[in-house]
Amino acid sequence: MQVLKQTLYMAAAIAVAILFFSCRKKKADKAPDDAYVPTPYNIQYPSYFPAMHIAEDNPLTVEGVELGRKLYYDPLLSKGGPNDGKSCSSCHIQQYGFTLPNSIVLPHINLGFNSNFSWKGAVSGTMEDMMKFEVEEFFAATPANFQQHAEYPTLFKRVFGSETITHKELAYALAQFFRTMISSNSRFDKYLRKELQLTPSELNGFMIFNTEKGDCFHCHTVGLFTDNQFHNIGLDSVFTGENQGRTEITGMPTDLGKFKTSTLRNVALRNSFMHDGRFTTLAQVIDHYNTGVKKSNTLDPIMTKPGKEFGLQLNALEKADLIAFLNALTDESFITNPSLSKP
What we know:
By secondary structure, the protein is mainly α.
């Protein structure tokens, strides 16, 4: 009888053990689906670019970048808002360097290195700050639209560890994708990497660009080809309406007529220049700097240096060479990169 009891106890213990380890195995098998372990994204950019600021609470991950790309092209972002039916890609088209023809839309190029955004600097800070503005104010996105979506809750959980979607998660995912929108493979970049030689015309244009002859490099710093600052470049001498510039943001009279320096990367793909689109060709832009600068109290000192009181005074060949160099800033791989295209 005692042996029988021991046998029964042992059988019961074995059954419990089997059940216990079976449950543990099922939980272990299920863990990968529930785990929040996004894959780190290895971002790369040239040594002649400044260091990119990446927020500590929003590290780049493969899953986060892909989610941001999906959001970039999804009009659900604007559903019910003032721009209903539009996505980021509606006004920022890849084949044009992520800008829009015949518009004053600033391009989405290398913005991960910027701290001032929009022509007048309506937003300053991190990429997360800019994306929060886009999500909350420009698009007036409704998080519930994504929360009720068949795919998005799962995608957000893989990136942020939770299916809960708020404006913050929308902005953070977009910020991750924006940081990968890097243009650094133009003919000029290949020249810097000693992969090819520029033409004599392009080289002479670069010399004009990067010396006091053209004075372009002061604001369009080699690398990003923008200093991310605001300047009055002599477009007007009287400032009214939209031409008042950054002073509308800061309230400071010293900012009258100042606008953000736009990057010159992929500039040859555009047909609208300056904050109001007043010029439609690069030749017109150069003619402005050559002979069309208007004086005012806030005109940038660079425009009034000794010898530049009447403009650059470039001749026809020098202007053509400068345009040749600007054409060499076109990055074909950027405008065809499938990892930046609609998923």
